[in-house]
Every structure is written in C-alpha cells, then in structure tokens.
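sorry for the late reply, my laptop died twice this morning and i had to redo everyting from scratch. anyway the thing you sent over, i finally got around to it. pasting the sequence first so we're on the same page, its 106 residues, then the predicted structure underneath. double check i copied it right bc i was rushing
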Amino acid sequence: MKRTPMSKPRAVVLAVLLIGLLWTAANGYKTRQGITRYCQESVVGISLSQAEAIARELGYRFEPDAGSIFKPGRLVVIASGAMGRLACQIEHDGERVTGAELVKRS
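ok and here's the structure:
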C-alpha cells in the first residue's frame, strides 16, 4: 500500500499544536522554578509590602489564604503559569514575613 503525504493544512495545524504544547510546558517549568525561588530564597525576613511588590513584579497574585479565615497572619502567592497548582504560603506578624512554604494545591 502506498503512503500518501500529509496535506499541507493538516501539517500546519499539527505544527501549531506542537509548538503550543511545547510553549505551555516550558512556561509551566519556568513558572515553577520562579515561584520556588521566590518562596524559598527571597521573602523570609522582608516586609510584607516588599514581598507583595516582588510578587506583583514577577506577575504573581498576592492574596489572603482562603483556608486561613480563622488564622490571621497567612497569605498566599499564586503563579498563574502553574495553573494554580503551586503556591507559596506566607506567614507574617503583620509587618514582616516570618515564614514561607511552597505548597501544592489540588
């Protein structure tokens, strides 16, 4: 049986899909590395305003932790490139960051 070559439009669509998939994977990896570095290396000991400024500059969301309504002193930093699955949970004393933990969210 003779194999027919793939039509040009089909090849273009497959190429675009492959590029999109590779870009998404690379962006997710880069975001994971960035939020990990932010959480583990750069926030403990600095002021809340500095931590928020750094997070926003990197494109992360900085907001109250929804699970800490009864535990004041917790915030969460979420990176959209990680599709909300990876976050940095920040503990603070009202002025300074006292701890940070990288958490995987389901």
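The longest strand covers residues 97-104.
thats about all i looked at so far, will dig more tmrw
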